[in-house]
Design goal:
11 helices, two-stranded antiparallel ribbon, DNA polymerase, domain 1, binds iron/sulfur cluster, alpha/beta, TIM Barrel, 12 strands, 2 domains, single chain
Amino acid sequence: MQKPDIRNCTDEEMKQFLISINEKPFRAKQIHEWLWKKNVHSFEEMINIPKLLTEQLNAHFTFHTSIIDQEASSEDGTIKFIFRLFDQQLIEGVLIPSGKRVTACISSQVGCPLKCDFCATGTMGFTRNLHFWEIMDQFSLMNQRSIESFGNHITNFVFMGMGEPLLNYDQVTKAINILTSPQGNGISPSRITLSTVGLVKGIRKLADEQFKANLAISIHVANDQKRNQLIPTNLSNPLAELQAALKYYVDKTDQRITIEYVLIDHVNDSLEDAENLCRFCKSFPVKINLIQYNATDSKYRKSSIENTKAFIQHLESRNLIVNLRQSRGQDIAAACGQLVKNSKKR
Ligand code: SF4
């Protein structure tokens, strides 16, 4: 029989296991620290655990550890990783340095079922959700590489890699709880951003659970007809319902929403599109990140400089806070799903 991954054990289950083998239950706290504060991937690294107990742990449990399968470095410092999971599935992660800040872009699913028309991951189909400990493996592997390459730990996290985080709600929020817990990595929730294409049910659930990290909505176009084409899940999560859910979220959490908007040439970059976005944002506080489209081998192209400028001017004339984000890692196919897709082609 296959041994279970020890990281699936709750603290209570670990205590019960220790009692069942005549060990002291306080060892559960030590094991927890090794797993979630020090992020070890073997029992041998737990140096304050007696040898006999290490043998027992080895006999009953395993680590389904992920490894770095490939990595590619961009001229701008961005490093993209392909991780190979224990069942040979591939996912992506990206490290993006910027001054003293190092942002890790993290995946939540193998592939994605939502099939957004502009996204390389969307063309790959969906294989499975990630376990929370596979999300944590992305953190620990990239954190190590961040220290080696940039002399600094990861400072910020965005759930903006492969997959829709709210379709893997429990595992994603569990990973965020470990990252932010004082018994885990103790990272401030303000340094973590969950990015969704706007699943209404999940947003309301986050609101009800008083989600502490940042919430970003990949809106990309604020007209239902166009959005149905670009993001098919808009058919069941139309803009009016999404807008109401975001208002509910802001009322419950008192947090500002980040709006992500990828500018695509002649698709969503007209002044009418800008005005639609203003209307969508009118009932809650927002910060808008405009992102230049990182062209995959899809039919879409990035917006022209003129259209981008006019779009920004229109939003600013309505007193909206706008940042234009440069697309990073273009020379290494750093947009979501591109590297795994290229790797599979090869
Ligand atoms: S943009 Fe996000 S939600 Fe849409 S297909 Fe890509 S990974 Fe999935």
